[in-house]
Design a protein that fits this description.
There is one protein chain. α5 links the parallel β4 and β5. The longest helix is centred in the N-terminal third of the chain and has 21 residues, at about 10-30. Strands 1-9-8-5-4-2-3 form a 7-stranded mixed β-sheet, sandwiched between helices. A 3-stranded antiparallel β-sheet has the order 7-6-13, with no helix packed on it. α2 packs parallel to α7 (about 235-245) and α3 (about 60-70) crosses α6. About 40% of the residues lie in helices and about 15% in strands. The protein folds into 2 domains: about 10-245, Aspartate Aminotransferase, domain 2; about 245-365, Aspartate Aminotransferase, domain 1 (Alpha-Beta Complex). The chain has 11 helices and 15 strands. The protein is α/β, with parallel strands linked by helices and about 375 residues long. The radius of gyration is 21 Å and the shape is globular. The protein has helices at about 10-30, 35-50, 60-70, 90-95, 140-150, 200-210, 235-245, 245-265, 290-300, 330-340, 350-365; strands at about 55, 80, 100, 125-130, 155, 165, 170, 175-180, 195-200, 215-220, 220, 270, 280, 285-290, 340-345. The protein binds pyridoxal-5'-phosphate. Pyridoxal-5'-phosphate (PLP) binds near residues 59 and 61.
C-alpha cells in the first residue's frame, strides 16, 4: 500500500468547482493585488481567530517581518525565540536587524521552554517570539506572564496552528501580533504563497497595511520604507473558499492523530506530548526514536513517505554561525532534530492507510 507523506491532489479535486468559480470571479474583476476577495478573507479569518484585525500578506514570513516592524524592533534589540522551528521564524528577527536569542525547547513537547526564558532576558530584550510547533500550542500562560513582568512584546508564530486553542482561547489572541502562513502545505493553504498578521490593536493593523504596500497610505506618498508584501487577489479568493472547510479538516486531523496515538502507544516510539487544556490542530504528527533514520528507510521501502521537522536546529545552521553557538548549546533541540520523524497526516488519509503506517512501525520494532 502507498501512503504518500503529503498529497494535496485529493483536496484540490474535491474543491475544484468552488475554486474554479472563485478564481474566475477574480479574473472577471481583474482584482489581482489585494481587492475585494482579500478584504473578505481578512474579515473572515479575523473572525475565525477571534481577533479584531487580520492583514493579508504574500507569505507568512512577510507577515512575521512586518509584525516586528510595527513594534519598532530593530538593530541592537534581542528577541527570545526557539531554535527548533522552520527558519522563517528567525528570518523575521534578522530582517529587522535584531538578534535572535535562542532558548532551548521542552523535551516532551518540543515547544519553547518557558522555564528557561527568564534567564535569557537582558536589558536589550524587546520581545518573546514562540512558535506553536506542529500545530500544538506552546505554553502561552507562563510566556505571557514573563512578557508582562518584563515589559516585553509577545509575538506568536502560528504558521502551523490555524485554529489551535490554549485553555479555550484561540492562538493569535495572546500576543500583540501573530503571524500565520498559508503556504500550500499548511493546514489552511493557498494555491501559491500567502500569509496573514492578526492583532487586536487598530493602529498597529493600520500601520501593517501601509507597510505591506510600499509604506504608503496614499498612493505615491511613502511615509516610511515599506515592502511589496500584498496578498494576491486570487489567493484571497482561494483562501475564502478553503476557510469554510477548515473546521472539518481539523476534525479529521484530530481523528487521525488520536488513531495513531492509540496504535503506537505500545511501541518504543516517544509520542508527541500535548499540554493539558490545549486543542492542537495536528499540522504534523511527529514521533521520536534514536533509530529514526533506520525506521525512516524501512517505512520508505514499505511505501510510506515521512518527513523531518526539523533535521538541523537553527543555532547550528551555517547562516547563523556568527551567533557563536555550537553542538551542545541547546541539547533538547539537538536531540529532537536527531530523533524526530513526521508521519503522514492530512484530512484525506484513510483508516487503512493509518493502520498500514502503524503496522509497518510495529514490524520494524519486532524485527
Ligand atoms: C511555514 C512557516 C513559516 C513561514 O511561512 P511562509 O508562508 O512559508 O513564508 C514561518 N514559521 C513557521 C513555524 C512555519 O512553519
Amino acid at each position: 500500500m502507498k501512503v504518500p507523506y503529503f498529497d494535496l491532489q485529493a483536496q484540490i479535486r474535491a474543491l475544484r468547482p468552488e475554486l474554479d468559480a472563485a478564481i474566475a470571479r477574480t479574473l472577471d474583476q481583474c482584482s489581482f493585488c489585494l481587492g475585494p476577495d482579500v478584504t473578505a478573507f481578512e474579515r473572515d479569518f479575523a473572525q475565525f481567530c477571534g481577533a479584531a484585525h487580520a492583514v493579508g500578506f504574500n507569505s507568512g514570513t512577510s507577515a512575521l517581518h512586518v509584525a516586528l516592524r510595527v513594534l519598532d524592533i530593530g538593530p541592537g534589540d534581542e528577541i527570545i525565540t526557539t531554535p527548533f522551528t522552520f527558519v522563517a521564524t528567525s528570518w523575521a528577527i534578522s530582517y529587522v536587524g535584531a538578534k535572535p536569542v535562542y532558548v532551548d525547547i521542552d523535551d516532551a513537547t518540543c515547544q519553547l521552554d518557558p522555564a528557561k526564558v527568564e534567564r535569557a532576558i537582558t536589558p536589550r530584550t524587546k520581545a518573546i517570539m514562540p512558535v506553536h510547533l506542529y500545530g500544538q500550542t506552546c505554553d502561552l500562560a507562563p510566556l505571557a506572564a514573563l512578557a508582562k513582568k518584563h515589559g516585553l512584546h509577545l509575538v506568536e508564530d502560528a504558521a502551523q496552528a490555524h485554529g489551535a486553542r490554549y485553555r479555550g482561547q484561540p492562538v493569535g489572541t495572546f500576543g500583540v501580533a501573530t503571524g500565520f502562513s498559508f503556504y500550500p502545505g499548511k493546514n489552511l493553504g493557498a494555491c501559491g504563497e500567502a500569509g496573514a498578521l492578526v492583532m487586536a490593536d487598530a493602529a498597529l493593523a493600520e500601520r501593517a497595511r501601509a507597510l505591506r504596500e510600499h509604506g504608503s497610505r496614499t498612493r505615491y506618498y511613502h511615509d516610511e520604507i515599506g515592502y511589496n508584501y500584498r496578498m494576491e487577489g486570487i489567493q484571497g479568493a482561494v483562501l475564502g473558499v478553503k476557510l469554510k472547510h477548515l473546521a472539518m479538516w481539523t476534525a479529521a486531523r484530530r481523528r487521525i492523530a488520536h488513531r495513531y496515538t492509540e496504535l503506537l502507544r505500545d511501541t518504543p516510539l516517544k509520542l508527541q506530548a500535548e499540554l493539558p487544556q490545549t486543542d492542537g490542530v495536528w499540522h504534523l504528527y511527529v514521533v521520536r526514536h534514536p533509530r529514526r533514520d533506520e525506521l525512516r528507510a524501512h517505512l520508505e521501502k514499505q511505501g510510506v513517505g515521512t518527513g523531518l521537522h526539523y533535521p538541523v536546529p537553527l543555532h547550528l545552521q551555517k547562516c547563523y554561525e556568527s551567533l557563536g553557538h555550537r553542538e551542545g548549546s541547546f541539547p533538547a533541540a539537538e536531540a529532537a532534530a536527531r530523533e524526530c520523524l513526521s508521519l503522514p497526516i492530512y484530512p484525506e488519509l484513510t483508516d487503512a492507510q493509518v493502520a498500514h503506517v502503524a503496522e509497518q512501525i510495529s514490524v520494524f520494532f519486532k524485527a
